[in-house]
Each structure stands twice: as C-alpha cells, then as structure tokens.
Amino acid sequence: MPTEPSPAHQPAAHPAVAAAQALSHAAGAVAAAWEQPMGPNAYSRAVSQLYSVLRDLGIAIRGLARYRVIPPAPPGPSDRGFAQHATTSAAWLLGAWHSLDGVLAAEGLGPLPGPARPGDVLCRAARDAITAWRQPSGTAADRDSTAGQLITAIVCLSEATLSLAGYAPRHRAIDLYAVGAGLAEARVALASAIQTPAGQGIRHRGRAATGHPGGRE
User: Fold this and answer.
1) Residue 60 CB partners (closer than 8 Å, separation 6+)
2) Calpha distance 29→117 (Å, rounded)
3) Range of the domain at 65
4) Torsion of CA 114, 115, 118, 119, to 10 degrees
5) 147-159 pLDDT per residue, tens
6) pLDDT tens, position by position, 149-197
7) Would 8 be classed as within a structural domain?
8) Of 157, 127, 139, residue with least CA distance to 24
9) Is residue 130 in some structural domain?
10) Of 33, 57, 56, which Cα lies nearest the Cα of 45?
11) Whole-angstrom Cα distance, residue 164 to residue 43?
C-alpha cells in the first residue's frame, strides 16, 4: 500500500508561494490577536504595524505584477490581465496606507522585549515579500497560487483592521474604515487577476464582522 511522502521528502514551495503562505499565516494570527481588547500602547503599536504592512505589501505586489511565466507562452490577454489587476491591487493598498495619515511606521517604534508578537511576524513577512517578489518567475500555477494565498492574507488583514476600528477614537475609526475599503478593492483586483470569484476566501468571524463605523469616543 503506498504511503504518503514524509514532509522531509516533499518538494519545497516556490519562493513566491512560500512568501505568500507566510503572509497568509501571519495575517491570520494577527486577525485573531487584534480581535482581543488591548491597552493604549499595544493599540498604537498595532496601528503602526498595519501602516507598515500596507506600505510593504503595496510595494511587494508591484513586483509580483511583473511575474514572468516559465516556460514562456505567447503573450495573451490573461498575462496582461494579471499584471494590470495586480498593479491595481498594489495601488489600492498604497492608497490605504496613505489613509493612515500621521501614523508612525512600526520600524520607528523599536522592538519589544520577549518573543515576537503576531504583528511583528506580519511586518517581517510583508518585508520579506518585497524581496521574494522583486523579480519573480515560475509556472502560471505558482503565480496563481501566490495570488490566492495573498487574497487570503488580505481578507485576514481586513478583519484585523475592522477589529482596530471598533476600538478606535472617531477620527482614527474613519481612517481605518477607509483602509478597510481599500483592502476590499485590493482583494477584488487580485481575484480578477486569477479569475477567482471576488467573494472567495471571505471569512465571517464574530465581532470582526460587526464593527461600528463610529468607533469609540
């Protein structure tokens, strides 16, 4: 009876896919962590981490838009469509980044003592994606798998943003809801890039789906 290959013998994930998987896992952990109440300092750090992640993801996806499919195929609408939609997704993320006016980037805060927290891991994953997606190449399946993992990461980041908005002062809540709108558009653009239904990957998790636009005074 054939046996499943052990993890040690399974082929390593394509670097672009691996970076997207790391992003997806880190964003899921952040969505769960930021759903919990936090003190003022932890909250400010979380907003700064979101600011940095939006910037780095926007930069990283601009690189992903230049993905070179191997073996090369005659240029067609699908390849041009991927680049166009991925570039649009990056623009939405960078626009969301600009929505957080006046926020200090996470790298300006310095590290906290102790083990890395979910937000720290997400910041590192977003920075690593810039390098992993700088000059990407591989099969079309790897490209689409990368985008699929990225869509999941954006969905989780949307949930995390909505959680932060629920605890925000009114002026910051408005900014965070603008970020949420930008993330939604970025997800739709990426779904179009790989011709995936825009609603795929959306999760519904308790309080994160019931944030209120006014935030807290």
Assistant:
1) 126, 129, 130, 132, 133
2) 9
3) 13-204
4) 50
5) 999 999 999 999 9
6) 999 999 999 999 999 999 898 889 999 999 999 999 999 999 999 886 6
7) no
8) 157
9) yes
10) 33
11) 8
> pTM of the predicted model, to two decimals?
0.82
Q: Is residue 63 part of a domain?
A: yes
- Contact predicate 168/213, CB 8 Å: no
* Three-point CA angle 99, 111, 19, nearest 5°: 65
- Cα 111 to chain centroid distance, Å, stands at 21
Q: Is residue 214 a part of any domain in this protein? A: no
37-65 pLDDT, tens per residue? Answer: 999 999 999 999 999 999 999 999 999 99
| DSSP states of 37-75 | ---HHHHHHHHHHHHHHHHHHHHHHHHHTTPEESS----
Q: Which helix (H) or strand (E) holds 119?
A: helix 118-132
Calpha distance 91→69 (Å, rounded):
23
The answer to whether 202 and 155 have CB atoms below 8 angstroms apart is: yes
Q: Which two tokens stand for residue 21?
A: 């998987």
Among 48, 11, 40, 8, which residue's Cα sits nearest to residue 142? 11
Number of compact structural domains in the chain: 1
